[in-house]
Design goal:
about 100 residues; five-stranded mixed beta sheet; four-stranded antiparallel beta sheet; 9 strands; about 5% helix; about 55% strand
């Protein structure tokens, strides 16, 4: 589901635990079903690892670990976002 507010900006909605969040669609590159990333030794605990997405190496961050929520959930997705430092993936429970 995408929301559209008065400023005509669209938002991608996703869930983490029992909360719903939104991110501006213009910065979302793509959404994937969860793919297990390759671990990176020495990375912070909230980094699940990296994936090769269409030839680009993308760091995958676990939203649950970043927010201090227990990492035990069934359905997961990865939202690939464009940032000033390149692409980053965020694992979430559900994309709504």
């Amino acid at each position: 589901m995408t929301l559209q507010l008065q400023d005509n900006k669209q938002w991608l909605c996703f869930a983490i635990e029992d909360e719903t969040y939104a991110h501006a669609v213009d910065k979302v590159r793509e959404v994937h079903d969860y793919i297990t990333p390759v671990p990176v030794p020495g990375s912070p605990s909230y980094v699940d690892g990296v994936l090769n997405i269409r030839g680009e190496i993308v760091t995958i961050v676990c939203s649950r670990k970043l927010l201090g929520i227990a990492d035990s959930y069934d359905a997961r997705h990865i939202i690939i976002l464009e940032s000033d430092n390149g692409l980053v993936g965020i694992s979430v429970d559900e994309v709504i």
